[in-house]
Amino acid sequence: ETGVTQSPTHLIKTRGQQVTLRCSSQSGHNTVSWYQQALGQGPQFIFQYYREEENGRGNFPPRFSGLQFPNYSSELNVNALELDDSALYLCASRRGQSYEQYFGPGTRLTVT
Amino acid sequence: GESVGLHLPTLSVQEGDNSIINCAYSNSASDYFIWYKQESGKGPQFIIDIRSNMDKRQGQRVTVLLNKTVKHLSLQIAATQPGDSAVYFCAENTHQNSGYSTLTFGKGTMLLVSP
Predict the structure, then answer these.
(1) Which of A91, A98, B44, B110 has a beta carbon 3.0–4.6 Å from B36's, enabling a disulfide?
(2) What pLDDT band is residue B7 in, cutting at 50, 70 and 90?
(3) Shortest CA distance from A90: residue in chain B
(4) What mean pLDDT, rounded, does chain A reach?
(5) Average pLDDT in the A14-42 region?
């Protein structure tokens, strides 16, 4: 196990709704990245938080937003859900900009 | 758990065979490369990594080869076991102008090992 936990494991939402996903990083890891993995695809970078600030963002619209808390846990929020948002959402933690990232088990989001 | 392997290239081998999984990466400025294993219903699990100043690195039963000339990575698994069945992704680490670094993943290959 990586020490990175995510909740919930599975979630079903309706188009137009909002969702919040949570990630608890490995102890001592102050950088958290979020990825979206569509079925049959590799993970795609959404954004990254370092010491409670977003310091990097991939090609995702503003309705994807996040937070990082003083204990370095993190949230991913998605507003106005679309069917194409159905995916496995992964978070990964690391210390600073160290190379090794440790992934959580993911949250499977289904939008109907 | 759900499948992460739909529509992926598939490599089928017999138990005990050696497996080779290939990956093309996109950014010549990438300085670090990782192979991940992803089993159904789980997050990616680190297997082995290599920095851009190396061309080969060996682990336990696994070897990664890096060819920067053609931007190609390969993962070799010796004596493949049924427990190796999973989807394998390569990822490249690239530094962005604003100072942070990101992982860019390849499309993945499903490895199926039959007893």
Answers:
(1) B44
(2) low
(3) B43
(4) 94
(5) 94
Q: Over the stretch B39-56, which tens digit does the pLDDT of each residue have? A: 988 999 999 999 999 999
Q: How far apart (Å, rounded) are the C-alpha atoms in residues B34 and B46?
A: 7
Q: Which residues of B touch A (CB under 8 A)?
A: 2-8, 32, 34, 36, 41-46, 49, 89, 91, 93, 96, 98-108
Q: Tell whether the model's pLDDT for residue B5 goes beyond 70.
A: no
User: What residue type is A62 in one-letter code?
Assistant: P
Q: How far apart are the CA of B115 and the nearest CA of chain A, in angstroms?
A: 25
A93 three-class SS: strand
Per-residue pLDDT at A11: 96
At a CB cut-off of 8 Å and minimum separation 6, what does B101 contact? A97, B93, B94, B95
Report pLDDT for B3. Answer: 40
Q: Does A39 touch chain B (CB under 8 A)?
A: yes
Say how far apart CA B23 and CA B74 lie, in whole Å: 6
- Residues of chain B positioned with their CB less than 8 A from the CB of A105: 41-43
Phi-psi region of B47 (alpha: psi -120 to 50; beta: other; left: phi over 0): alpha
Tell me the sheet residues that pair with A34. Answer: A47, A91
